[in-house]
Amino acid sequence: MSFTLLVVVLLTAIAFVGVVVALSYAISPRSYNEQKFEAYECGVPTRGKSWMQFRVGYYLFAILFLMFDVETVFLFPWAVVMRDLGAQGLISVLFFFSVLVLGLAYAWRKGALEWK
């Protein structure tokens, strides 16, 4: 019963999206000119190369920041309900924290935290 309902809801959602996309394609205005096919650069013509390379260190630092940002998002709810979780909750928090500390130690050992 519930599986049938799920299939009906998914098919209805897919059909609705298809109808909306087809309708917007059918009634949208069309104007073809050369400017439509150019890359948008905020109205200012580019001088020189428009692509720049970034050092990998920026990406590594951003990933590490996200890792520890997500850590705080997960650790705060655990800290709020720590007494209710008991020993199993403590073990899971310690495992999670140890994985993060090992990741930080690995990044530190590989030199990801140093600007060169």
TrEMBL record:
<keyword id="KW-1133">Transmembrane helix</keyword>
<keyword id="KW-0874">Quinone</keyword>
<comment type="similarity">
    <text>Belongs to the complex I subunit 3 family.</text>
</comment>
<dbReference type="GO" id="GO:0030964">
    <property type="term" value="C:NADH dehydrogenase complex"/>
</dbReference>
<keyword id="KW-0997">Cell inner membrane</keyword>
<keyword id="KW-1003">Cell membrane</keyword>
<dbReference type="InterPro" id="IPR038430">
    <property type="entry name" value="NDAH_ubi_oxred_su3_sf"/>
</dbReference>
<dbReference type="GO" id="GO:0008137">
    <property type="term" value="F:NADH dehydrogenase (ubiquinone) activity"/>
</dbReference>
<keyword id="KW-0813">Transport</keyword>
<comment type="subunit">
    <text>NDH-1 is composed of 14 different subunits. Subunits NuoA, H, J, K, L, M, N constitute the membrane sector of the complex.</text>
</comment>
<dbReference type="GO" id="GO:0050136">
    <property type="term" value="F:NADH dehydrogenase (quinone) (non-electrogenic) activity"/>
</dbReference>
<dbReference type="Pfam" id="PF00507">
    <property type="entry name" value="Oxidored_q4"/>
</dbReference>
<feature type="transmembrane region" description="Helical">
    <location>
        <begin position="6"/>
        <end position="27"/>
    </location>
</feature>
<feature type="transmembrane region" description="Helical">
    <location>
        <begin position="85"/>
        <end position="108"/>
    </location>
</feature>
<dbReference type="InterPro" id="IPR000440">
    <property type="entry name" value="NADH_UbQ/plastoQ_OxRdtase_su3"/>
</dbReference>
<feature type="transmembrane region" description="Helical">
    <location>
        <begin position="56"/>
        <end position="79"/>
    </location>
</feature>
<dbReference type="GO" id="GO:0005886">
    <property type="term" value="C:plasma membrane"/>
</dbReference>
<keyword id="KW-0830">Ubiquinone</keyword>
<comment type="function">
    <text>NDH-1 shuttles electrons from NADH, via FMN and iron-sulfur (Fe-S) centers, to quinones in the respiratory chain. The immediate electron acceptor for the enzyme in this species is believed to be a menaquinone. Couples the redox reaction to proton translocation (for every two electrons transferred, four hydrogen ions are translocated across the cytoplasmic membrane), and thus conserves the redox energy in a proton gradient.</text>
</comment>
<keyword id="KW-0472">Membrane</keyword>
<dbReference type="GO" id="GO:0048038">
    <property type="term" value="F:quinone binding"/>
</dbReference>
<keyword id="KW-0812">Transmembrane</keyword>
<keyword id="KW-0520">NAD</keyword>
<keyword id="KW-1278">Translocase</keyword>
<protein>
    <recommendedName>
        <fullName>NADH-quinone oxidoreductase subunit A</fullName>
        <ecNumber>7.1.1.-</ecNumber>
    </recommendedName>
</protein>
<dbReference type="InterPro" id="IPR023043">
    <property type="entry name" value="NAD(P)H_OxRDtase_bac/plastid"/>
</dbReference>
